[in-house]
Amino acid sequence: MSLTFTLDPAVTPDLRDGVLGLWTDVSNAGGAVGFVAPVTPEDIRPELVRHLVAMAEGRNRLLVGHDEAGNVAATAFFSFNTHRLMKHWVWLYTVMVHPKHQGQGYGRDLLAAAADAARGFDGIAAIRLTCRGGHGLERFYGSCGYREVGRVPGAIRVAPGDDRDDITMLLPLG
Q1: Which of 5, 6, 137, 150 gives the lowest tally of CB atoms within 10 Å of its CB?
Q2: At what angle do helices 13-28 and 41-56 cross, to 10 degrees?
Q3: What is the pLDDT of residue 1?
Q4: How far, in Å, CA of 16 to CA of 161, rounded?
């Protein structure tokens, strides 16, 4: 089995609810996607709305992976730079694979699909993303071709006394 990836899918209620459910499930499973468990869909909804508004305004694009049952199983959001000296690379945000699909290579598939999509964006030469330290994510991204280009120690506070590094990764598309 593999995921079917779609860039810029139509934003239907099913897609919106699928992304919201995915984000909630990933967060509650301990995923480093901007929230700390426990969360509810209502905790995440305002952030999802911000992402959807940015999509409608052309500032963000969505790559979604559906499983064989047609459920949202993976996502990655692209965010374009507005600064004139940084328009040659994009940010990759909210990179998620549903916990029930993890360990099957879908994360690698998602990152490969994201790189393929970014190569089709006019003038884009690289992808940058950040990840939260303490999960080994920098090793995973490194195994997918990204390299660590920056680290801010203790920049992410997940709980009192639990500060994590904010790690910046880069994937040249050349």
Answers
A1: 150
A2: 130
A3: 79
A4: 35
